[in-house]
Design brief:
Mean pLDDT: 93
Oligomer: single chain
Low-confidence stretches: 265-274
Shape: globular
Number of strands: 3
Distance between the termini: 50 Å
Radius of gyration: 22 Å
Structural class: mainly alpha
DNA sequence: GAAACGTGGAG
DNA sequence: TCTCCAAGTTT
């Protein structure tokens, strides 16, 4: 903690107290949520809003309550159950992680950051989050919500830097409560504050428990010093990949590769969901399909394409 | 380190 | 309508 430990301690109290009174009731926060359930939620929540995760999460946990349950299934089942959550490689990596946990960790999610970090699809954030939320470790959790709260509250800036800097993680460690239990609560409390109050656009400062302590408020709420560059989407390979995956998820049988590659203009009504949307240039459709196969999200045997088993 | 990687709700 | 953005990871 540093020279301003007393001041930061007051902020710990205010934000943690706010969390106790305002936190959402989410299934992965219940006392019954297993480490595996929490791990599943963390995978699904990567770059994906809570409201869209909720229904998929519930069905996933009911169907595969332990890592070994998922590990026993072919990858195709995970990809289908993932539905339209987006970034299907997360489902692929979650499946791979379940296999690894079953094989090397006795079927139990490991409890240390280092062990978690070694699993497929688990980066610095997810390892810290699982260790904290599932095992009570006082790790330093840094996600997009926490980065934004720190940038405003401690940094006086409207937004964090486009790319995380080393100084951000140093500051996160400095403001971390020294007490184990307080630190554990702090991680989720700051994240929730960022999600509900200290939001990216139009933050609800009148509801903020640390309004009086906020450096951004004190500075007069200056504008961001950069303009975020939007994520391109229309016409990208990602869009075409998504459409191909949608077809494969809905098709009970392998799909002729030609149906993805041939010119669909004027073709009879598509046999598979979404197929008629595949109006991208031939070269792009070829590239997207090849990419999916390269990434192990699809397989091709002879002229047929199917989900990987 | 930049770029790629899905999807759909909100403003 | 269109842009922004949501509990990131991997190459």
């Amino acid at each position: 903690m540093g020279a301003y430990s007393g001041w930061v301690h007051r902020i710990h109290e205010l934000i943690n107290h706010w969390y106790r009174n305002h936190a959402r009731q989410l299934p992965w926060r219940s006392a019954e949520a297993s480490p595996w359930a929490i791990m599943v939620s963390e995978f699904m929540l990567q770059q994906t809003p809570v409201n869209r995760v909720l229904p998929v999460y519930t069905q996933w946990i009911a169907r595969w309550p332990e890592p070994a349950d998922l590990a026993a299934e072919p990858l195709s089942e995970a990809l289908i159950a993932w539905g339209r959550l987006g970034y299907p490689r997360r489902a692929q990596r979650l499946h791979a992680a379940a296999v690894e946990i079953t094989r090397s960790h006795g079927g139990k999610v490991p409890g240390t950051e280092a062990e978690l970090r070694a699993l497929p699809g688990v980066g610095d954030y997810t390892a810290a989050a699982i260790a904290c939320f599932a095992f009570g470790e006082p790790t330093v959790v840094v996600d997009t919500n926490i980065r934004r709260v720190h940038a405003r509250l401690f940094g006086g800036a409207a937004l964090p830097e486009p790319h995380p800097r080393a100084s951000e993680f140093r500051r996160a460690r400095e403001v971390q409560p020294s007490d184990r239990h307080t630190a554990n609560l702090w991680n989720i409390s700051v994240m929730e504050l960022g999600a509900l109050v200290c939001t990216a656009r139009s933050p609800k400062c009148d509801e903020c428990p640390v309004f009086a302590q906020c450096a951004w408020i004190a500075a007069g709420r200056p504008e961001p010093h950069y303009t975020p560059k939007g994520q391109s989407w229309a016409g990208t390979d990602r869009q075409v990949r998504g459409e191909i995956m949608a077809v494969l998820r809905h098709s009970p049988e392998p799909v002729p590769a030609a149906s993805f590659l041939e010119d669909l203009t004027g073709a009879p009504a598509a046999e598979y969901t979404g197929l008629q949307k595949l109006n991208a240039p031939l070269e792009q459709r070829q590239r997207a399909l090849a990419g999916l196969i390269q990434d192990g999200l699809a397989m091709q045997s002879e002229t047929l394409v199917h989900l990987p088993r």
